[in-house]
Amino acid sequence: MSVLFPDPPRSFAGRRLAKIGVRALHATAAGIFTGAVVLQVDAAQRTTWAIAAIASGIVLLALDLHESCAMLFQVRGLAVLVKLGLLTCVPLAGQADAALLIAVMLLASLSSHAPARIRYRAWHARLGAKGATTRG
Known about the structure:
mainly alpha; 5 helices; about 60% helix
């Protein structure tokens, strides 16, 4: 279990800078993609932004999971899981795709700007693993 839930959580030199850079790219790409969907821009013109948002999201999740998989049992991890669930519904949403993406963006903004005491709180009462509490 220490591989998935190391105590203390793993880190590496430059982690904070890497997460800030990837997060900035992710917010930009996701925002442009969502705006393009809302404005009904041709799907072919949105593809690059969708790929950039997906790829940067995967890198962010990988960085968090590398630190400790315990993050999935914290409120911030639950928010990621809910966002992923909502995003899987986008291809099936038809005309509601824009509303669904806006909901994801609102959830992302609220969860990422919530106080640390909320973001890092365990949502599962029996969580025995120490979750990461590093900022960035």
